[in-house]
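Below is our example:
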Amino acid sequence: MKEHIEKIKDKFSLTREEIEMVMQQIMSGEASKNEVAEFLLALRAKGPTIDEITGAAKIMRKFVVGIETHHRTVLDTCGTGGDKKNTFNISTTAAFVVAGAGVPVAKHGNRSVSSKCGSADVLEAAGINLKIGEQYAGECLDDVGIVFLFAQMHHPSMKYVAPVRKELGVETIFNILGPLTNPAKATHQIMGVYKRDYVEPLANVLKNLGLKKAVVVHGNDGLDEITTTDKTFIAEYNGKEVISYDIDPEEIGISRSKLRDLEGGDLKENLKIFETILDGERGPKRDIVLINAAYALYIADKAKSINEGLSLARESIDSGKARKKLEDLKNFTERIPLVNKGNLN
C-alpha cells in the first residue's frame, strides 16, 4: 500500500492491477485510516485515470450487496451529485418517468450530497420504505419495474471509508465510484457528473465495466444533468465506441429556462415539485425531467431517437403511468418489514 501511495504522490498512475490491490485492502478493512486518507488525497492531487477508476470500481463492485432480477435491461439514472446548484430531484423524477414508459429502473441513490435533499430523502418523504433489504429489492424490481437501492444498505464495506471521507471533507474518487457500482448491475445508465473533465473518462469507464450502453452528461451551467438553460456536453457509449458532442435543448424542441426555474427548496418543497411533475404540471421543471428521461429511454433502446424519447416521456406522465409507478413502489415497500443495517453513509 505504501509504495503505491508514494507512486501516486510522485504523479505516476497506477496500473489497473495495482489500484485493484489498493482497493481490496481498503474495502476489506486491512488499510489503516491514515493510509486510506493518504491514498485518497494523493489520487485527488494527481487526478485518477480511466484505468484507475475502472479498477477501483471493479473491486468496489465485488463488495456490493447485490440484487438479482429477471430483467435483461436495467437502467440507472444515478449521478455524482455535488454540482452545488440546489436543483430539485431531477434524475429521481426522471427515473419514474422512464419506468412508466416501460424500462426497468434500479435507481441507486443516497441522502443529500450537495442539494438540500437527496433522492433517498425525497422518496422517504413520499412514503417509500428505503430499507427493504436485498432479498426484497430484486422482487420489487421484477414486480413493480422500479426499485430504489439505498446506497448505505448495499455498501457495507464503506464503513471503512466513510469516517475518513467525512474527516477529509473534500471530493475524492468515491464521489464518482458510487454511481459506477449499481447493486443490480445496471446494463444501461445515464450518469450526470459535476465536472466536465469527467464526462469522457467516465463514459469509457462504463464501457470497461461492461455496460451495454451509457451516456455521461454535464451541463455548461454546471448541472450534473442534461440542462435546459444552456448546452450540455455528452459522451455516449453506443455499444461500440464512445462519441462526444454537445446538445442544445432548443434543437429538440425544449425551451430554454433560467437556473432559478430549476431550483428546489427544503424537503417539503422538493417533494411537492416531484409529485406535481408526476401529476402532469407543465413548465421548465417538467421540461428538464422530460429531456433527461428522453435520453434515458434512448440509451436503454426504448426510443430510436431523442424526439421519440420525448414523446414516450410525455406519454408516461400524461397517461398517469409515471405516477402509478410511484404508488406501486410505495405499496410494495409498505408491505416489507424495515431492515436496519445502520447508517453507513
Q: What stands out?
A: Residues 340-345 have pLDDT under 50 and may be disordered. The radius of gyration is 19 Å. The first strand starts at residue 75 and ends at 76. Residues 284-299 form the longest helix (16 residues).
